[in-house]
Task: structure prediction
Amino acid sequence: MPNQLVAQFTLAAENVGAEVHAIADQQELTAYLGKRIDGPLLLAPCPSLERLDLPQVMEQAGLNVVIDNFREQGAVAVAGLTGANFGIAATGTVVLESTAEAVRIATTLPEKHFVLLDPQKILETADQAVPLLHKFHQQLPQAYLAYISGPSRTADIERVLTIGVHGPSELHILLMEGLSDDPMER
Result:
């Protein structure tokens, strides 16, 4: 079933404009990012990403990594990188606990958002997320949860679909096994 969920998730995410790629390790992640960004990368604080020692690995590869001063750097950053709490296969949605301002800035201000998701944390439907939502409410009653399906889009302007007006114009979902199997952790 996990391979079927990954395939279903990938198809649904691509149908709403996201790019989905399997990434094996930090080096492959760094190479992927290096080909797609030219400028500052906001690296939001996420436990699963911190275990990978990404700032050091990415800086050694020549990427311009920003780990603080997000308010100042958010306006000039070309991309943001976050982890995800879980994904929903039916809609290709990634869900992030985004209470921390740094996470909200990394997911909304830069033109490109890269999100790492452990494929083990893909649920089949949104209904399966209800117990997790209850758990979030119990543990973090003031938490913000962001459901992200594809790049930012709006049709507010003369009913013409426009990408990237209210957030990133690109969403890259990077599936990396072994990040974290805990949906309460990004």
In short: DSSP finds seven helices and twelve strands in the chain. The chain has a mean pLDDT of 89. The chain has one domain: 2-175.
